[in-house]
Write a structure and sequence with these properties.
The chain is mostly helical and 228 residues long. It has a single domain (3-223), classed as Four Helix Bundle (Hemerythrin (Met), subunit A) (Up-down Bundle). The protein has six helices and no strands. It has helices at residues 3-33, 48-75, 78-110, 118-139, 143-170, 190-223.
């Protein structure tokens, strides 16, 4: 890929991210105006339309990192390593949104900011695992060793992702069970389900745009002899 193509890739990612942010503003307007106030949780339940998509993008991101890292270990293609690193950085951003919006929702509804139950603990562990992934990438200077070591860490995260999702079924937890990704039909009223699905779609577009933009920057930096 030429320098011109890499810059174009970055621009496309930024454009997609910009479009997603505009759509996201519309989603939040819909969340406040087109969905009912939940009977038992009241107005704080509106955080649901941010928290759930952020959690989805975080887990999606870490899944992408693990799968792409596995492909790197097989193919030894530097582009896969750079893409995995880009996906991890964006995944960590969405994890921060998830881990901050969750307590803001939990405090008025369940009376606590945090509880060390299975879902919350595993989610925090996954977050710190990928913080370690990024720290490892910064600490190891040799590109081949950096890619190989970080790929192994990413695979550990990939193994952990399904346990995060299934933890509400395997252990007692204050965290509610999924309302969409579950064996039975979704249990949300129609307007709430529609806005949630739109929010999931737009957040996913934002995630994709940020990853593409960051990957373009990483490709440019790699050609210039740095690992940014």
């Amino acid at each position: 890929m030429t320098a011109v193509a890499e810059r174009a890739l970055t621009r496309r990612g930024l454009l997609l991210s910009g479009v997603a942010l505009v759509l996201l503003a519309g989603i939040y307007v819909l969340a406040f105006t087109a969905t009912p106030i939940e009977r038992s949780q009241g107005f704080p339940q509106k955080i649901f339309y941010l928290h759930v998509p952020a959690a989805w993008c975080a887990l999606l991101g870490f899944t992408v990192v693990g799968v792409v890292s596995l492909l790197y270990l097989w193919l030894k293609d530097e582009r896969l390593d750079l893409f995995a690193a880009s996906a991890a950085e964006v995944g960590v951003i969405f994890s921060i949104v998830m881990l901050t919006s969750g307590p803001l929702w939990a405090r008025p509804v369940w009376g606590t900011w945090w509880q060390w139950d299975a879902r919350l603990t595993l989610t925090l562990l996954l977050f710190f695992l990928f913080i370690g992934y990024l720290s490892l990438r910064s600490a190891v200077q040799d590109p081949a060793e950096r890619a190989r070591f970080s790929a192994v860490v990413a695979l550990l995260g990939l193994v952990l992702v399904p346990f995060v999702h299934l933890s509400v079924y395997l252990f007692r937890t204050i965290h509610p069970t999924p309302v969409v990704l579950k064996p039975s039909a979704p249990t949300l009223p129609g307007s709430m389900l529609t806005v949630l699905l739109l929010s999931l779609l737009v957040h996913t577009l934002l995630y994709a745009g940020l990853v593409v933009a960051r990957y373009g920057v990483a490709r440019t930096a790699a050609k210039e002899g740095t690992h940014g």
